[in-house]
């Protein structure tokens, strides 16, 4: 009798433990599934609480009124590299776009700390001259650190590192993570909040690495996936136009995203 009782108790314990495991897995997955809806709701709430942003002037002599503030020191899918600088303000389009981009990357890449987007300076609260920058004056510019892996291909924390045409950092310790960096480019171009994008500044060599990867992904799609092939071809075409290397700096150590002031407020 005691043997039967022990068997029943053990069976119930196993069932309960298994149930807890499944419940925990479901709870862990649920936030990830609802992430973009949650952030979209947060964006709409913030939009309702403020006047629309106004960006005025020129790239090198501008101002910003009614800015949106990107939550510091971190938010869903991102963190600020320098939260103490007070350079986490921008036009609504930029800030809401970055919030959405962070959620997109969290959704696509997972919630590992090294998958978080490392965001550097946006603009100051009122725009204008910002230390370390020529532009970043109207709340329409932001710098994003590249994703990287170690030499074995394992994701590692993003830093402000320069990469050559071979994808290796100057110190040889890091590799330009073409897969995740392409996900950033795709997330930027497909983002409904950014509106019209003026440029995605990046070195020509790294641009070619990203486009080569994207073309390989397109060719790897099943032949019957004509719709997906067409979508990716359109995305690649847009990326080829938007990505460029400026004459002032090679931008081999970060993305510089610049939004057009012609977009919606």
Can you give a write-up of this model?
- This protein has helices spanning 2-48, 92-109, 178-189, 204-220, 226-242; strands at 54-58, 61-65, 68-69, 74-75, 78-80, 89-90, 117-119, 141-145, 148-149, 155-156, 175-176, 197-201, 243-244, 254-259.
- With 265 residues, it is α+β, with helices and mostly antiparallel strands.
- The chain has one domain (50-259): Muramoyl-pentapeptide Carboxypeptidase, domain 2, CATH 3.30.1380.
- The strands form five sheets. The chain has a four-stranded mixed β-sheet with strand order 8-14-12-13. Strands 4-5-7 form a three-stranded mixed β-sheet. A three-stranded antiparallel β-sheet has the order 10-9-11.
- Strand 9 (148-149) and strand 10 form a beta hairpin.
- Residues 4-30 have low confidence and may be disordered.
Summarize the model shown:
With 265 residues, the chain is an alpha+beta fold.
Low-confidence stretches: 4-30
Question: N-to-C terminal Cα separation, in Å?
Answer: 76 Å
Look at the structure and give the mean pLDDT: 88
Order of helices and strands: HEEEEEEHEEEEEHEHHEE
DSSP helical segment count: 5
Helix content: 40-55%
Task: Provide the CATH architecture.
Answer: 2-Layer Sandwich
Round the Cα radius of gyration to an integer and report it.
22 Å
The structural class is alpha+beta
Sheet with most strands: strand arrangement: 8-14-12-13
What's the level 1 CATH class?
A: Alpha Beta
Strand fraction: 15-25%
The coarse overall form would be globular
């Amino acid at each position: 009798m005691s043997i039967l009782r022990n068997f029943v108790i053990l069976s119930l314990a196993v069932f309960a433990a298994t149930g807890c495991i499944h419940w925990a897995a479901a709870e862990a997955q649920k936030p990830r599934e609802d992430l973009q809806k949650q952030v979209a709701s947060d964006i709409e709430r913030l939009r309702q609480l403020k006047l629309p942003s106004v960006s005025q002037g020129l790239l090198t002599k501008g101002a910003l009124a009614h800015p949106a503030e990107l939550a510091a020191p971190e938010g869903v899918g991102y963190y600020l590299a320098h939260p103490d600088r007070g350079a986490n303000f921008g036009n609504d389009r930029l800030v809401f776009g970055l919030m959405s981009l962070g959620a997109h990357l969290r959704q696509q890449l997972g919630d590992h700390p090294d998958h978080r987007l490392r965001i550097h300076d946006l603009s100051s609260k009122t725009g204008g001259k910002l230390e370390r920058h020529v532009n970043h004056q109207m709340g329409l510019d932001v710098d994003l650190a590249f994703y990287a892996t170690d030499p074995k291909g394992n994701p590692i924390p993003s830093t402000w590192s320069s990469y050559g045409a071979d994808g290796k950092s100057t110190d040889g310790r890091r590799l330009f993570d073409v897969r995740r960096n392409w996900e950033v480019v795709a997330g930027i171009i497909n983002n409904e909040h950014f509106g019209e994008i003026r440029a995605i500044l990046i070195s020509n060599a790294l641009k070619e690495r990203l486009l080569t990867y994207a073309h390989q992904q397109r060719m790897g799609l099943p032949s019957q996936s004509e719709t997906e092939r067409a979508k990716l071809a359109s995305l690649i075409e847009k990326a080829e136009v938007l990505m460029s290397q400026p004459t002032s700096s090679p931008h081999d150590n970060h993305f510089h995203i610049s939004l057009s002031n012609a977009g919606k407020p």
